[in-house]
Design a protein that fits this description.
five-stranded mixed sheet; 435 residues; globular; binds protoporphyrin IX containing FE; three-stranded antiparallel sheet
Length: 435
């Protein structure tokens, strides 16, 4: 059962995949068609962006899959993370995690998301240059601290604000990939252990305080503490901690990147920005955050940014048993991946796929195998509704209130950040004061 033909995954291919993933996907498809196979350091991998192959992956029995190459995340996320588990355990965790992220629940977070956007924007001075990504990252962290962790104590809050981004950064260091470097003499590993210990202490305290208090908030942590397995039992402290860090790591940078791209594209196309501003002044004249989320053009703008630059360009899972998928008989141990970048740029689905045209999302509905920035099947993003809601509130709020100029007014390439792809350089902008 050989895998389909594809590029030889030597050092050169690995580097090209890491440095220029778009180029790697495009060259592979031109040469080998889809699906194509590669031999990676993590074992054989079969990739495709054809909707029928994507459907095969997302519709397959979830029990035939386990996460692929996620061991590197274990030191940060912990072994109970929903991202790292598979089979029944993974299904159980999703059952506990999905309800707090239900679309309806997001409405109660709208005002706090808008406040976070204004608070972070209030640090700008007129004429000042900034990177859109740094701004959206700060907003997204504030939102997670408010709505997921529910931290109100200023000391705990400033502690977590300093520690969490550092933990995520250290979690991308070499010792995560090369286990033999996990030694106290290696400075980055030593620092990682120290930061992880401090973070665990703060989160542990937060969990214990919340458990012992009668005053539960409407934050996601409070809901996770109340969530019950089928037998009526609840997650213990270490399970809750691992889910919190998984939510943070899956939700913080992804949402920030999506918002930064959207700011970039809107300012590259001033006519689209003007149309959006008109729609905002008609459909959400007071800037009411919830009303912003109901504006169809704002939704289309966010979706089009996620289409043209999916934050995670490919989504892989490993087969834990032999299976027939994408027209190939594959052996256990082979990984299969849906390449959102290829699907989202397929000219058969999207006319002028390299152009940013939000209107296409008003004219047509795309299937979950044609447009899937949040993945699909049993691993589909738990925070999809949350992320899209937040992007609309934050972008609607700042665009309505402030004026910006794009300083990177040229095509931007992508830059790898952990497993995500962000706009290279972070989108340089200038702040021009209130509208
Ligand atoms: C624009 C922002 C976001 C994007 C593009 C995004 C994208 C994704 C993708 C592609 C996956 C993997 C899906 C798959 O393998 O099929 C995923 C998983 C996940 N995402 Fe998101 N995400 C975003 C925001 C969020 C937010 C805000 C949260 C939570 C607050 C979140 C929580 C998760 C979790 C927990 C998983 C793991 C699900 C599992 O393994 O069962 N994400 N996300």
């Amino acid at each position: 059962m050989p895998i389909p033909k594809g590029p030889r995954f030597g050092l050169g291919t690995t580097l090209s995949y890491i440095r220029n993933p778009y180029g790697f996907f495009e060259r592979s498809v031109r040469r080998y068609g889809q699906p194509f196979g590669c031999h990676t350091m993590g074992g054989p991998l079969v990739l495709s962006g054809r909707p029928e192959d994507v459907r095969d992956i997302f519709r397959a029995d979830p029990m035939i899959f386990e996460p692929w190459n996620t061991d590197v995340l274990k030191p940060v996320l912990g072994s109970n993370s929903v991202i790292l588990t598979s089979g029944t355990q993974h299904r159980e965790y999703r059952k506990l995690l999905i309800p707090p992220f239900h679309g309806q629940r997001m409405r109660s977070y709208a005002q706090r998301m808008a406040t976070a956007a204004h608070d972070c924007a209030s640090k700008w001075h007129e004429g000042e240059d900034f990177r859109a990504y740094n701004f959206t990252q700060s907003v997204s962290l504030e939102v997670i601290l408010d709505t997921v962790f529910g931290v109100t104590d200023p000391v705990v809050r400033s502690g977590l604000k300093a520690l969490l981004p550092e933990l995520l950064n250290l979690g991308n260091g070499l010792p995560m990939f090369l286990k033999f470097l996990r030694l106290p003499v290696v400075p980055s590993w030593r620092r990682f252990i120290a930061v992880r210990k401090q973070t665990d202490e703060l989160i542990g305290q937060l969990i214990r305080d919340r458990t012992s208090s009668d005053d539960r908030g409407d934050d996601i942590l409070s809901m996770l503490l109340e969530a019950e397995y089928d037998d009526g039992s609840r997650m213990d402290e270490s399970e809750v901690r691992d889910q919190l860090l998984s939510i943070l790591s899956a939700g913080h940078e992804t949402t920030a990147i999506a918002m930064a791209w959207t700011l970039y594209w809107l300012h590259r196309h001033p006519e689209k920005l003007n149309r959006l501003l008109e729609d905002i002044s008609e459909q959400a004249p007071t800037g009411d955050p919830e009303a912003l989320t109901q504006i169809p053009y704002l939704d289309a703008v966010v979706n089009e940014s996620l289409r043209i630059h999916p934050v995670l360009p490919d989504l892989a899972r490993k087969l834990c048993q032999d299976a027939e998928l994408m027209g190939c008989k594959l052996k256990a141990g082979t990984a299969v991946g849906a390449v959102a970048f290829l699907t989202h740029r397929d000219p058969e689905i999207y006319e002028d796929p390299d152009e940013w045209i939000p209107e296409r999302f008003l004219d047509r509905k795309f299937s979950p195998f044609e447009f899937y920035p949040f993945g699909g099947g049993n691993r589909r993003c738990i925070g999809a509704a949350f992320a899209s809601f937040e992007a609309k509130v934050v972008l609607g709020t700042v665009l309505r209130a402030y004026r910006f100029e794009l300083l990177d007014n040229r095509p931007l390439s992508v830059e790898r950040r952990h497993i995500t792809l962000m706009p290279r350089g972070g989108v340089r902008m200038r702040y021009h004061g209130h509208r």
